[in-house]
Amino acid sequence: MNSSSTRINYYALALVSAWTGVLVVFSFWMSRQAYHWLPVQASTAAPLVDGLFSFETALATFVFFGVISVMAWVVIFNRAEKYDMSDAEPIEGNTRLEIIWTVIPALIVFGIAFYSVRVNQKLAVLGPMEHIHRGDPIEEVGGFLGDRLPAEQVEVTARQWSWQFNYPAAKVSSTELHLPVDKPVTFRLVSEDVIHGFYVPAFRLKQDIIPGRAINLNLTPTREGRYRLRDSMYSGTWFSTNQADVVVESEAEYNSWLQQAASQPLQPGLSDAVAEYKQRQAEGARGWPTVVPAPAPMVNVPGSNQLPHNG
Amino acid sequence: MTLASYDPRVLKSNAPVPGAPDNWKRFFSFNTDAKVIGIQYITVAIFFLLIGGLLAMIMRGELITPENDLVDRTVYNGLYTMHGTIMLFMFIFPVLNGLNNLLIPTMIGAPDMAFPRLNAVAFWLVPIFGVILISSFLLPGGPANSGWWSYPPVSTQNPLGNLVSGEGMWLTAVALSGVSSIMGAVNFVTTIIRMRAPGMTFFRMPIFIWTAWAAQSLQLIGLPALTGGAIMLLFDLVVGTSFFQPEGGGDPVLYQHFFWFYSHPAVYVIILPVFGIFSELFSAHSRKPLFGYAFVALASFAIVFLGLIVWVHHFFPSGVPEWMRNLFMVTTMLISVPTGVKVFAWLATIWGGKLRLNTPMLFSLGGLFNFVFAGVTGIMLATVPIDIHVNNTYFVVGHFHYVIYGAAVMGIYAAIYHWFPKFTGRMYYEGLGKLHFFLTFIGTNLNFFPMHPLGLMGMPRRVSSYDPEFTFWNVVASLGSFLLGVSIIPFLINMISSWVRGPQAPQNPWNAIGLEWLLPSPPPAENFEENVPTVISGPYGYGTGKPLVENQSAYENQSLLEA
């Protein structure tokens, strides 16, 4: 009796170890796959975020498939026979086991939290994710930015429903965001109406733009290409169209773009909402009344939001 | 079915009895019997589930193509706002209150709730604010369209300028819903504390009672913040105050604190009773005691405590300072510890059991599967750098639909099937139940899994059109949503036909342990009346042979049929 149960335990131990090994390998493979589920990495923040996501994907895979394996085993092998109305063995608990499965998850969680706080700090060193100025946004623009120079400075104005980018140094305005690669940039985010969200998935950064505040956001693009900026905070009827393109280019291309832009006369920038609203009025509105879109901002360069983008 | 075949206690009661003449009329009256109110809640809730689901299917119809081509954008925005609002305030809270009404008095051996009239008032507010909410579709300005969060300033933009706006009606409905839930919570908590059968100490209460108690305590603590916030926003909208308007010196982020201070705990109000359901069903249908009862019971209150200090994780990318981000990240992650305790306890409960894969058990297992998936994506969302990327994207939408539909609603279905024989006196049809389960399980995963890759790719939530690179997963999700719509059909057929002409249910079809199973099916109006049993052991004595109450055989095998 004793020896046979020992033999069975060895067998079970081998099975559990082998399956755990399979899960570990699978979790590791999933952590590599995780990078492909995300957009291209186009900022210094992106690899840090993706590394953390990859790490948590491994943990998540292991936990999820571990639990599912137990459930599958039980469902396959622990079913009652058809007319078996008896009860199972009444095991009411095991204090040691319960303490273990309280303490180990707590340790894992503290581990994840520790790693995440470190990543948070690194992101903050790369450029504080945001600084908030309360009160009148116009008066608080100076001074603060001094210690972050020589960052490029771009003023971002969000409206219902368009984005406007002003380059104060070059006296250029645009509805397409151009940025030099590998150079830190400071955005000063302002909203004229409701809360909007400044979100460039390829940069992995997002910042709500709160009306009545000017919020600074720092980042450094690292990859040339054309990316989407999306409004991430629901902002009303044409929220979905409130997108702009972000063009990251070499410093030479960027400077020549700025120069050319400065010579252009002001013209209406991009606003899909204005175009759709005009069409909606002409056809007779099918839906409910809406806030009227702000007129397209007058800018030097409208740019485009119809070209293929990299993420 | 003749009257003579009913237990005399059932006949003399004012409570509706399935099959008895004219009894359906009583369900439309101001009845104070918790069991009638429970069925009223559940029926009204399922009616609104159908409406909310229909709105979701129109939304998925719009999202099956990238362009905005099915409904006008203003209509889409109204649809998603009302979908969320109806599902939360008109479906899930009422359906859970229905289960609370059915189960709390019968499980603790009380004749009724502590305040039966208050109970009835709380219920009748539900159709009132339901009508207010739904009728806002008929306003010239349309219903509220700023999402179920209703963040100012976008929510206080009122293009027509009318005094009666969709947003105003929405806020009125939400405030009334809050009042109704507070009334309910006072009742449930009082009943649990004051009206337990003799011998039922706190640590002999079924886990469902623990979790209902924990959840309703959260309602009492959190709801005043939401209800207050809703009233302040209504003042901003109608009277022109500026609590949240920046141009008047107000702060829009303050509203977000008010809103999430309640609305995050609200998730635990929803999921805690479902944890209770899992605990009951896993032990009953695997014929084993719940593993680590005391840990599981106390973990409920650990979740309450932690659930109250995590709300800022909903707006990490808002104007939130760094220290707050780190603090709320840690508290949020800590919730996984008591939650993990419960999950491991359920696994240990079913491990080595004698499982019966009937409909309630299938729904519980499917619900646990979905819950674990939601749990691991929840840890990702708690992690600030990841959350900054996926916040307000479809990743979040996928996560919480796994929690709310995948885990909570599947758990609620499990409960409805499990206790259906007890409260209607009829058996449901197992084949239809299993069909319902498989359609629901496949539909849920097909609908909500694709939202995770979409969110990781950067598709914002609440959009009525999107870039073409998101098309594939959206098509899959839309097909899943239509399957989910179909899945409700066998459920409705099963519930209606079983209640009308299903086979008579025995007193205890699952051979389950619990005071409610010592009552006839359906129980008489006053439950145990004068013969309240004395509880002498814990609630999950499967396989121990220990009786639950003194003189147990006197309560067992009471048939509705007088042999």
Helix-strand blueprint:
The complex is a heterodimer of chains A (311) and B (563).
Chain A: H1 2-33, H2 45-77, H3 95-126, E1 131-133, E2 152-159, E3 162-167, E4 172-174, E5 177-180, E6 185-191, E7 196-200, E8 205-209, E9 214-219, E10 225-231, E11 243-249, H4 251-263, E12 267-268, H5 272-283, E13 298-299
Parallel strand pairs in A: 2-6, 5-11
Antiparallel strand pairs in A: 1-9, 2-3, 3-4, 6-9, 7-8, 7-10, 10-11, 12-13
Helix pairs in contact in A: 1-2, 2-3
Chain B: H1 8-12, H2 34-63, H3 73-108, H4 116-135, H5 166-194, H6 207-238, H7 252-286, H8 293-307, H9 322-334, H10 336-350, H11 359-382, H12 384-390, H13 394-424, H14 430-448, H15 451-457, H16 471-501
Helix pairs in contact in B: 2-3, 2-4, 2-16, 3-4, 3-5, 3-13, 4-5, 5-6, 6-7, 6-8, 7-8, 7-10, 7-11, 7-13, 8-10, 11-13, 11-14, 13-14, 13-15, 14-16
Walkthrough of the structure:
The complex is a heterodimer of chains A (311) and B (563). In chain A, helix 1 (2-33) packs antiparallel against helix 2 and helix 2 runs antiparallel to helix 3 (95-126). Chain A has a 6-stranded mixed beta sheet. In chain A, strands 5-11-10-7-8 form a 5-stranded mixed beta sheet. In chain A, strands 12-13 form a two-stranded antiparallel sheet. Chain A is 39% helix and 21% strand. Chain A folds into 2 domains: 2-77 and 96-126, no CATH class; 131-299, Sandwich (Immunoglobulin-like), CATH 2.60.40.420. Chain A has 311 residues and is an alpha+beta fold. In chain A, a hairpin with a 2-residue loop joins strand 2 and strand 3 (162-167). Chain A contains 5 helices and 13 strands. Chain A is elongated, with a radius of gyration of 28 Å. Chain B is mainly alpha-helical. Chain B has a single domain (36-554), classed as Cytochrome C Oxidase, Chain A (Up-down Bundle). In chain B, 62% of the residues lie in helices and 0% in strands. Chain B is built from 16 helices and no strands. In chain B, helix 3 packs parallel to helix 5 and helix 13 (394-424) runs antiparallel to helix 14 (430-448). The two termini of chain B are 14 Å apart. Chains A and B meet through helix 2, helix 3, strand 8 and strand 10 of A and helix 3, helix 7, helix 8, helix 9 and helix 10 of B.
